[in-house]
Design brief:
Largest sheet: 2 strands, antiparallel
Radius of gyration: 19 Å
Pfam families: Pkinase
CATH class: Mainly Alpha
Distance between the termini: 19 Å
Strand order of the largest sheet: 1-4
Helix content: 25-40%
GO molecular function: ATP binding; protein serine/threonine kinase activity
Shape: globular
Strand content: 5-15%
InterPro entries: Atg1-like (IPR045269), Kinase-like_dom_sf (IPR011009), Prot_kinase_dom (IPR000719), Ser/Thr_kinase_AS (IPR008271)
Protein name: Protein kinase domain-containing protein
Keywords: ATP-binding, Kinase, Nucleotide-binding, Transferase
Length: 259
């Protein structure tokens, strides 16, 4: 996200389904990859939108106001919701319609800390990502420098396997595919760690049938999507479901998202 933003772009539809995990065979590591750039746009001086784009409940509070001002901070809020869901297994807010969110956001000042989050550094980072005021919300570059990632406690949590993978990347540094992030153990997620996490998470939280969040757009001229079904609605209409098919079949997409 930091690299994406440094290029002057706004994704505008960051959510769990649009962050894929990829582990090249034999690499021992997992890469997180952002997908679905159908709503992406270049940031400009005003960032005013003529239409609304995003997926509730990942949409930032400022997207429920008029005029619609969409900056890179909407991506940070959406990442915060994604991060929150990974930990708490629910959304900070889960309402039925865009109008419901609009009413609540008009009065709500912040997201309350859930009892399950005990780590103060973690909540400090999350609360900065979920800050309602976009001018006060943390940037992607600032988030990477947050103590949750850089404190002595965070460094102590780096596993021997992460260090080994970083050292191996150092030996391959002449390879043009090796980036600075590949050589930094704080950016490395090993395959064994993510596999262990997924297994323990499934045991603690058995999969349940859940309705997927709604993608909301009041644009009248649709973007081009790699999709099987595309529904667009105006601001006065009840929202409806948009099923994206961005890689393989729908079942494959859901499997990728569940990982």
């Amino acid at each position: 996200m930091c690299v994406f933003h440094s290029a002057g772009l706004i994704h505008r539809d960051i959510k769990c389904d649009n962050i894929l995990l990829h582990s090249p065979p034999g690499s021992g590591r997992v890469y997180a990859k952002i997908s679905d750039f159908g709503f992406a746009k270049k940031a400009d001086s005003t960032n005013k939108q003529t239409y609304l784009a995003g997926t509730i409940p990942f949409m930032a509070p400022e997207l429920f106001k008029r005029p619609i001002i969409s900056t890179q901070k909407v991506d940070i809020y959406a990442l915060g919701v994604t991060f929150y869901r990974l930990i708490v297994h629910t959304y900070p807010l889960m309402l039925d319609t865009y109008k419901d969110y609009q009413k609540v956001m008009a009065h709500l000042k912040c997201i309350e800390r859930p009892p399950i989050i005990k780590d103060n550094l973690l909540w400090d980072l999350l609360s900065k990502m979920l800050e309602f005021d976009p001018n006060k919300r943390i940037t992607a570059a600032e988030a990477l420098q947050h103590p949750y990632f850089t404190s002595p406690e965070a460094i102590a949590d780096i596993s021997p396997e992460q260090y080994e993978l970083a050292q191996y990347a150092e030996k391959l540094q002449l390879n043009d595919k090796i980036s600075e992030f590949d050589k930094d153990p704080t950016f490395i997620l090993s395959f064994s760690e993510i596999a262990e996490y997924i297994q323990s998470d499934i045991q603690r939280n058995p999969p349940q049938e859940q309705s997927e969040p709604e993608l909301y757009s009041d644009q009248l001229i649709p973007h081009q999507f790699d999709s099987q079904q595309t529904h667009y609605i105006t601001d006065t209409q009840k929202h409806t479901t948009l099923t994206l098919k961005f890689s393989g079949s729908t079942s494959q997409r859901k499997f990728s998202a569940s990982i």
